[in-house]
Amino acid sequence: MILLIIIGMSLVTMLPRMIPAFIVDKLQFRDWVNRWLNAIPYAALGALIFPGIMTVRPDQPHIGLLGGLVAIVLAFLGVNIILVVMAAIATVYVLT
Q: Where does the chain cross the membrane (predicted)?
């Protein structure tokens, strides 16, 4: 009985994740929809990172913003991601 419950739960979890993967490949979207869909990962990443930037020092949010600004500038210049992260951390460390 427990095994059937586990199999049922895995199917209920797996099917909603697998079906779109097969359907999306067969659909043709307009260009503006594709641009919008391509922006979703960046928006999600920003939504995950921004609250952390603002709460590095809750009483001094400018410190986190400066660290984030350093990361943005270095990433825009094409610096290796490890160095971008290290520079942002170093900036926050020096300012605190």
A: 37-56, 63-95
Contacts with 65 (C-beta within 8 Å, 6 or more apart), sequence order: 53, 54
- 49 phi and psi angles, rounded to 5 deg: -85, -40
d(C-alpha 61, C-alpha 70), whole Å: 15
Q: Which two structure tokens, joined as six digits, stand for 50?
A: 């921004």
Helix (H) or strand (E) holding 57: none
Per-residue pLDDT tens for 40-77?
888 888 888 889 888 888 899 899 999 999 999 999 99
CA distance 60 to 40: 30
| Cα–Cα distance measured from residue 74 to residue 30, given in angstroms and rounded to the nearest whole number | 33
